[in-house]
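Write out the 3D structure for:
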Amino acid sequence: MTTHQESLLPGTQRALLHRIAVAQAEGRAPSLVAAVVRDGRAVWHGARTSVDGHGPDETVQYRIGSITKTFTAVLVLRLRDEGLVDLGDPLEKHLPGTGVGEATIAELLAHTAGLAAESPAPWWERTPGSLRPGLSDVLGEQPLLHPAGRRHHYSNPGYTLLGALVEEVRGAPWEEVLREEILDPLGLHRTSTHPQAPHAGGWAVHPWADAMLPEPMEDLGRMAPAGQLWSTSGDLARFAAFLARGDDRVLSARSLEEMRTPAAPAESADVVDGVTYGLGLQIQHRDGRLLVGHSGSLPGFLANLTISVADDVAAVVLANCTSGPLLGAVAADLVRIVAETEPRIPEPWRPLREVGPAVLELVGQWYWGTHGVGLRATADGLLLLAPLTGGGRRARFRPNGDGTWTGLEGYYAGELLRPVRRPDGAVSHLDLGSFVFTRQPYDPQATVPGGVDPEGWRGIG
């Protein structure tokens, strides 16, 4: 993979190198490799290693653990977009006989199906997958710990079920579908279910001594869709660019935006920490930034992929140790360094291609009771409703072609915005989900619920 390090300023490059050098040294990682993506392409690659003369580059494979789940989620969203499944479908509809069939596909994607976090003993990450040949061996006798849909409880067996769903609907092994539908179209030729040279070895570092122990590298078998993949910082940089922008050969930008949308109820601690989960993607609010991506770990390896869509910057960090450096913090710092040192240059402002009088008639200042809002027509053909001052509800609206508009996010998501006209055709007010917005606060000329006092506005005396 060709990196474009000249695209970043020398000071930015040094700051990135310093951050991963500190992470490798203080985290006592045998090796650590990283990449930064901006504007849809890799612009920096760096590595640190304890072995002289053998530094890894963007072509060296590491095990990426649960980042595999994001690949599996993309496969499931492809099934949905083709109309082969609905996210609200119970698993039983497509994969009968599992014993957890009432859980929906969406709940499995968001880890809200109530399943246990792990498969039954022995520890599946350090034992052969042949010990768990069937789904019943992965799920065990008591696969459900919580009511479905009530709480986020991370579940590796849940993604094994999603991989089995892909196999059932496609009629082909998960690995084969993955290669055909994601890896080949995106050019991820160094991503595979088994290690391909050159690849890093997995190590455990003694917590109280600078000594190492090799970790076993087992084939996970049925658990593969939850964590089997090996990849490189180069391939994951391409994957990060795809997750941020979409690629219609694989999955549309709209479906990826859905994956990046919170889909799980947050625990109290999660609210404090600013973390939640979408459909196959972790979401966090950190240092004023909304970050999406996924972490991964298996014995001997750590991995993290982090994206700031607003900044159009992503980072990938991989290490070959069971524990040590906090790669989520490292990746977030790499994103922050680039975003703050070299802020994204916005696209030039451009006017609307065309704008009709019916749209211009709606824009400007409106009042919900006494609360002032502004309605603006944007260059993408939408309407933006936002408070005139301070915080409050804001949302974009798309046109429906009949003079009405539908909310796209927040409180007004799915709600209908309808201009109400007087007999002469002029707009009297806006009806937004039964809320009346008028040009003046409590306009007596409009149909305000409860009416307006005929004596109008007055002072104390």
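The two ends are 77 Å apart (CA to CA).
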